[in-house]
């Protein structure tokens, strides 16, 4: 409420400014924006500022000095795009800035804080916490980045330096035969083998073909490379869709609450309306179609045109994996209401419980018999998540189906303004959707070649699948340990992380803590998270950054710290929580 | 049937308004012809590696090692990689937290931003603050970010040169602002007249538009001119008086093909001017790894540096950057390598210099061949490409050609470029995609085709052009408009 009042005041002042400027070209006053600076806290004081201004203006109209600037600087907080001011992104918000400051402090004065390192559990950034990349993917990328070694290796039989340290020296020279093969295949798909050239704005065609095959293998339904747009991570793809869908604040998108704040931020930035639907914490963050219907109706009654439904599956920050039945109901709902289904499926590889399986919305829709004419569906995928966690590469894609050719053309145009996404990221996206496979052929060969060569065909598959399984199993263990730890704490309940990379525990904060937070002018969950950080060095994100049922408090904690660090985190968390409760218990 | 969310009629109008000619009709037709097996010479995008320019060896070695850091532990790594590449890879990995696979700070890796700041100090002679340098996925992303921050609505105007690189027109329509054109004067070697700027601003004001920023592209795209120091200081003074942010697109700063007017940055000129200008004028300048002798377009690496932008606004720009998490890390390392290149005495130094000099000298020759080639054609006049990567000849189309274009439903220069494409396989961009004065027609080509192919390309162009002119020109001569 307060925010909109301030925003309104600002708008008035800038309009007036414009009028003044219009009347008096080249004679406004430099201190102008300082004055506005101090006046924007209430509309009455900004009116005073305006009066002052008008007075200044009439007195200064005669004296026109040679070259004073006639306008306040255009890039001041008072004069920038109000949509920019409005958007918020808590994953990298206040807590993280505090964490960075503490980290500097630790570096400058080791031992000055009650902990010796900052543990970033705020963001799904696995490799920053020590997760190793998948060797095969990196071999292929290195070879594509510097193809000169590829030729050299072949000429001299010298490509002997790769693969994990676990293998004995004698294996090394042949170890990555299939990564060489894959790198060659990929380079052959790139016009001129030029990994340093802009590609087609949708991404390199050959790589899109590979991804298409991967999607078909995953879903058992046909896919089309022309439906794919490769992007610098999934976020730019989401932005592109927002740009397309949102024309004004009358355009709404149904978003889950809690949600990944990319959606709220991007809707705010594009000036649309977020139409919330609540996930039900009681039923493991269940998504009820009745709730969707209710919220849709309510939004429509307010004159909002709801254009799309965002579903994050597996959920972020909530970690639930949707049941197929549930997905069918969602698809049916979108079809009936004419909503675009924006399916954030970036955690599709991250499922930790045997009773749940990931199903893409495309597969679900197709299995219901719905094709391109029935449903507009966008599926987002990223190289940043899964077992690979290659966040820094900024690779991803969206698969858009059910769009008319002229709409497709508009997306293509948007993509082309950015020229193309980065090529390493594109290559990696193709690898992720088409990882090494077990070679059946090599088994039959094994009858008459020695044991050493048997490894050749399988080499990357074995090490690849060992690396992959190792990471996924470890993530599942970490999720369980942290969940159990949270559940054991006074006043904390926590749903299981069935998938994704997060736990989103609910804290029942004592009245006294809420009062203390209010006195400190912070949201209670932010208050808790800040105290946690200051006491333990553990960085989590307050639930208010994701949205939550009013009056409930949560935080999001990733399951990504390396396994050997988990016990320490658990004991620090436990000790902190206990002392926090002791301090504030009613 | 219920209306659907993505019905064309209901799309964001600003998206529909966007035009982006570099990948428009001509490019699509060229791609079609290529599929049909015709040999196409793509001169529509400044994309050097696509036309056979080899990447510089050293940076690729460093980035390959960073991609596969386990190679660094192998005793045989020295057989395949020079010692300085190994050392640099270790250096950059030590600057990251988690190698190439981790999101960096949303503004880019602090250590790389420090290297950029050191480069700017060496280049301009003035200190630069790494906190005010943001790394981006190519310069385009940075431009979009800044324009998105500035533009509030249709009453906000941005001064943009005409002809211009269509990124600016596209981004301004996308964010719902108003493009306020100022014309570059072709007869004055695409010079920029400050009086013309003042006119543009007052005309815009008359229409109720507040001009808030000014874009300069130096060296020019598509026009190839290098701005003089005197001209730059006039521009900065103008921005000071009008309270405009100056957006300095300086991505072609390495691409200079004459010695009279070396590149000089807006920041240096601004700082040289001293107060009040150096303390007041808001400046954002852009750079990239896609151009220069690097030409690493596919990496999507760039940065912008902010000068005199208030800290609160910087925070807002940071916030928006953080929504995109981080720019891609391999390209950040390319950027580090670009601003902090090898030094004499390094093992790979000789090779690096040989490669980079070779590319620049060849581009200089190609710029010359192209300008001379165009000027030898009937009804074609062309300014010399002083910098950047493009030639932008004016094609004086005879009235009959203009009529023929109209009856074919095409803009005259599109008509000409399509015919050129069909006849020769040369894929150019019509001048109308960049903006030009009423009744005057141009096309843009890059100067990037291989040097050895250049004479043949120009010959084939001349053959087409002169035939075209023959076909459409009255014996009485063409109209000079």
From TrEMBL, chain A:
UniProt-listed InterPro entries: ALAT1/2-like, Aminotransferase_I/II_large, PyrdxlP-dep_Trfase, PyrdxlP-dep_Trfase_major, PyrdxlP-dep_Trfase_small
Positions of the Aminotransferase class I/classII large domain: 189-565
UniProt organism field: Linum tenue
GO molecular function, a single term: pyridoxal phosphate binding
UniProt keyword terms in alphabetical order: Aminotransferase, Pyridoxal phosphate, Transferase
Similarity remark: Belongs to the class-I pyridoxal-phosphate-dependent aminotransferase family. Alanine aminotransferase subfamily.
CDD domains named in the record: AAT_like
Key word Manganese present: no
Subunit structure: Homodimer.
A Pfam family assignment: Aminotran_1_2
Pathway it works in: Photosynthesis; C4 acid pathway; Amino-acid degradation; L-alanine degradation via transaminase pathway; pyruvate from L-alanine: step 1/1
Superkingdom of origin organism: Eukaryota
Cofactor(s) named in the record: pyridoxal 5'-phosphate
Membrane-spanning intervals of the chain: none
The EC number(s) this enzyme carries: 2.6.1.2
Protein name as annotated: alanine transaminase
Automatic annotation (TrEMBL), chain B:
Xref: Pfam families: Aminotran_1_2
Residue stretches making up the Aminotransferase class I/classII large domain: 84-450
Cofactor: pyridoxal 5'-phosphate
InterPro entries referenced in this protein's UniProt entry, alphabetically: ALAT1/2-like (IPR045088), Aminotransferase_I/II_large (IPR004839), PyrdxlP-dep_Trfase (IPR015424), PyrdxlP-dep_Trfase_major (IPR015421), PyrdxlP-dep_Trfase_small (IPR015422)
Biological process terms in GO annotation: photorespiration
GO MF entry, a single one: glycine:2-oxoglutarate aminotransferase activity
Keywords carried by this UniProt record: Aminotransferase, Pyridoxal phosphate, Transferase
Protein's pathway: Photosynthesis; C4 acid pathway; Amino-acid degradation; L-alanine degradation via transaminase pathway; pyruvate from L-alanine: step 1/1
Listed CDD domains: AAT_like
Catalysed reaction, written as an equation: glyoxylate + L-alanine = glycine + pyruvate; glycine + 2-oxoglutarate = glyoxylate + L-glutamate
GO CC annotations on file: peroxisome
Listed transmembrane segments: none
Complex and partners: Homodimer.
Family stated for the protein in its record: Belongs to the class-I pyridoxal-phosphate-dependent aminotransferase family. Alanine aminotransferase subfamily.
Protein's UniProt name: Aminotransferase class I/classII large domain-containing protein
Organism: Linum tenue
Lineage: Eukaryota, Viridiplantae, Streptophyta, Embryophyta, Tracheophyta
């Amino acid at each position: 409420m307060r925010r909109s009042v301030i925003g309104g005041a600002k708008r008035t002042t800038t309009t007036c400014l414009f009028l003044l400027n219009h009347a008096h070209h080249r004679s406004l006053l430099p201190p102008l924006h300082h004055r506005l600076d101090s006046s924007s806290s209430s509309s009455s004081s900004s009116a005073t500022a305006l009066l002052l201004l008008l007075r200044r203006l009439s007195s200064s109209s005669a004296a026109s000095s040679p070259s004073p600037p006639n306008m306040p600087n255009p890039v001041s907080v008072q004069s920038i795009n109000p949509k920019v001011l409005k958007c918020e992104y808590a994953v990298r918000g206040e807590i993280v800035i505090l964490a960075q400051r503490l980290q500097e402090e630790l570096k400058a004065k080791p031992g000055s804080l009650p902990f010796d390192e900052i543990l970033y559990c705020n963001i799904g950034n696995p490799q920053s916490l020590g997760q190793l990349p998948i060797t095969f993917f990196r071999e292929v990328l290195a070879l594509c980045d510097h193809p000169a070694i590829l030729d050299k290796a072949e000429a001299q039989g010298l490509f002997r330096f790769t693969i994990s340290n676990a293998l004995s020296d004698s294996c090394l020279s042949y170890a990555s035969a299939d990564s060489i093969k894959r790198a060659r295949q990929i380079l052959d798909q790139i016009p001129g083998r030029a990994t340093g050239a802009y590609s087609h704005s949708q991404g390199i065609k050959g790589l899109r073909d590979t991804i298409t095959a991967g999607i078909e293998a995953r879903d058992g339904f046909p896919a089309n490379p022309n439906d794919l747009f490769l992007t610098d991570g999934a976020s730019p793809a989401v932005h592109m869709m927002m740009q397309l869908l949102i024309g004004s604040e009358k355009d709404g998108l149904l978003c889950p609450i809690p949600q990944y704040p990319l959606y709220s931020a991007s809707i705010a930035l594009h000036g649309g309306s977020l139409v919330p639907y609540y996930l039900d914490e009681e039923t493991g963050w269940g998504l009820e179609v009745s709730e969707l219907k209710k919220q849709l109706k309510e939004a429509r009654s307010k004159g909002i045109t709801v254009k799309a439904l965002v579903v994050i599956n597996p959920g972020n920050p909530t970690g639930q994996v949707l049941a197929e039945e549930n997905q069918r109901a969602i698809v049916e709902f979108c079809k009936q209401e004419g909503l675009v289904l924006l399916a954030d499926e970036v955690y599709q590889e991250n499922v930790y419980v045997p009773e749940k399986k990931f199903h893409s919305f495309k597969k679900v829709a197709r299995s219901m018999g719905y094709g391109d004419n029935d449903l507009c569906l966008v599926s987002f995928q990223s190289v940043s998540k899964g077992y690979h966690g290659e966040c820094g590469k900024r690779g991803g894609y969206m698969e858009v189906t059910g769009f008319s050719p002229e709409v497709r053309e508009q997306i293509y145009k948007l993509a082309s303004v950015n020229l193309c996404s980065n090529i390493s990221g594109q290559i990696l996206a193709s690898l992720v959707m088409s990882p090494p496979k077990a070679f059946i052929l090599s088994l039959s060969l094994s009858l008459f070649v020695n044991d050493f060569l048997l490894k050749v065909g399988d080499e990357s598959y074995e090490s690849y699948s060992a690396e992959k399984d190792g990471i996924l199993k470890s993530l599942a263990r970490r999720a369980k340990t942290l969940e159990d730890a949270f559940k054991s704490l006074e006043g904390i309940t926590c749903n299981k992380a069935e998938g994704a990379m997060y736990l989103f525990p609910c804290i029942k904060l004592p009245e006294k803590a809420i009062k203390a937070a209010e006195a400190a002018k912070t949201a209670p969950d932010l208050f808790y998270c800040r105290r946690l950080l200051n006491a333990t060095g553990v960085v989590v994100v307050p639930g208010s950054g994701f949205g939550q049922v009013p009056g409930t408090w949560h935080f999001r904690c990733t399951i990504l710290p390396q396994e050997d660090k988990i016990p320490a985190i658990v004991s620090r968390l436990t000790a902190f929580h206990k002392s926090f409760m002791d301090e504030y218990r009613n | 049937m219920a209306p659907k969310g993505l019905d064309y009629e209901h799309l964001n109008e600003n998206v529909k308004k966007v035009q982006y000619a570099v990948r428009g009709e001509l490019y699509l037709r060229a791609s079609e012809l290529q599929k049909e097996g015709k040999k196409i010479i793509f001169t529509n995008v400044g994309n050097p590696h696509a036309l056979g320019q080899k990447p510089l060896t050293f940076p690729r070695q460093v980035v390959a090692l960073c991609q596969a850091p386990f190679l660094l532990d192998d005793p045989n790594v020295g057989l395949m990689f020079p010692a300085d590449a190994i050392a640099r890879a270790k250096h950059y990995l030590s600057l990251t937290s988690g190698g190439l696979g981790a999101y960096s700070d949303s503004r880019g890796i602090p250590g790389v931003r420090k290297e950029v700041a050191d480069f700017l100090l060496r280049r301009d002679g003035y200190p630069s603050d790494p906190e005010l340098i943001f790394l981006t996925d190519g310069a385009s992303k940075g431009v979009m970010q800044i324009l998105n921050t500035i533009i509030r609505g249709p009453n906000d105007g941005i001064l943009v040169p005409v002809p211009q690189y269509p990124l600016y027109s596209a981004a301004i329509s996308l964010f719902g602002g108003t493009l306020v054109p100022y014309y570059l004067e072709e007869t004055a070697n695409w010079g920029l007249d400050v009086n013309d700027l003042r006119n543009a601003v007052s005309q815009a004001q008359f229409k109720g538009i507040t001009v808030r920023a000014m874009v300069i592209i130096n060296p020019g795209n598509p026009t190839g001119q290098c701005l003089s120091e005197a001209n730059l200081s006039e521009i900065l003074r103008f921005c000071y008086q009008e309270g405009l942010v100056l957006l300095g697109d300086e991505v072609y700063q390495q691409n200079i093909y004459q010695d009279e007017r070396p590149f000089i940055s807006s920041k240096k000129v601004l700082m040289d001017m001293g107060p009040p200008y150096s303390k007041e004028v808001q400046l954002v300048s852009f750079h990239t790894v896609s151009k220069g002798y690097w030409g690493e377009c596919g990496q999507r690496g760039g940065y912008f540096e902010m000068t005199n932008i208030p800290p609160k606004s910087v925070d807002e720009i940071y916030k928006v950057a953080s929504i995109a998490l981080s720019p891609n890390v391999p390209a950040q390392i390319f950027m580090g390598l670009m601003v902090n290149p090898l030094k004499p005495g390094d093992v790979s130094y000789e090779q690096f210099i040989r490669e980079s000099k070779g590319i620049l000298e060849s581009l200089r020759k190609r710029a010359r061949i192209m300008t001379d080639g165009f000027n030898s054609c009937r009804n074609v006049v062309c300014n010399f490409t002083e910098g950047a990567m493009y030639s932008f000849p004016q094609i004086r189309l005879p009235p009959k050609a203009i009529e023929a274009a109209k009856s074919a439903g095409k803009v005259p220069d599109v008509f000409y470029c399509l015919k050129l494409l069909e006849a020769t396989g040369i894929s150019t961009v019509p001048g109308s995609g960049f903006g030009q004065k009423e009744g005057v027609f141009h096309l843009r080509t890059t100067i990037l085709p291989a040097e050895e192919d250049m004479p043949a390309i120009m010959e084939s162009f001349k053959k087409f052009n002169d035939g075209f002119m023959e076909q459409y020109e009255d014996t009485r001569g063409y109209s000079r408009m």
